[in-house]
Amino acid sequence: MALPLAMGGSEMPSNALNDAKSSAAIYSQLKTMVLNHAFSPSQQLQPWSLADAFKVSATPVREALIRLNAEGLVVVYPNKGFFMKPLNIAESRELYTLRSQLLKCSIEHIIDHAGRETVSALVGTLQVHLLAMRMVESDAALRLELIFEECLHAAGSSVCFEVVHGVHEKTRYLRSLFVEDGQYLDRYLEIVGDIATFIQEREKKSAFERLRDELEFKLDCVPKLCDAGLVRAFRCQ
């Protein structure tokens, strides 16, 4: 029986594991899936369902979940079982704040140092992503992160890119909730569209102001989206 996976998560391993496999092998694969956000926040991890998916008995799965709990990657509720950790509002706010600071440095570098062709190519790419998201394409959640990763590429900020990409990985599930709400998405696209325009016009101050608006908007949305995520997770159980 296949388990429901969160948007953007990895697939269940296709090569079936047998009962002779050690709990270490199950632990390794489960840990990879948890770190890759294959499960929704607060989703219950039922040993027998996972065992069925892995084609093993429940014992090595339960042992693996106990190890993951000891590492703080999953939680255990008495008389209820194993669950993914819930969405963390404080952590999400910190991640978005860090992301905004790094993007500000990259946008400043682009405006101050990038040539006209680089800026035009960047703005053109951003506009393609924005148009696709307005059409509510299936990969809208992915495009949401690509919009600003393009800025990091244009600025040649490889280190910043790796950090921001890590932020996007940690907020993947939250982003999937974001693109499902038309009200949030429309407002966000308006702000990002303005930032793209100001980059093209090399209006640094205006770009920074809209980037600050983007951060404030994200921080305001986080608690509401976390609540929505909890509702969705418990409906799936």
UniProtKB/TrEMBL annotation:
Pfam families: GntR (PF00392)
Domain called HTH gntR-type: residue spans: 20-87
Superkingdom of origin organism: Bacteria
Alphabetic keyword roster: DNA-binding, Transcription, Transcription regulation
Coiled coil: none
GO molecular function: DNA binding; DNA-binding transcription factor activity
Record PANTHER family: GNTR FAMILY REGULATORY PROTEIN, TRANSCRIPTIONAL REGULATOR, GNTR FAMILY
Name assigned to this protein: GntR family transcriptional regulator
Originating species: Agrobacterium vitis (Rhizobium vitis)
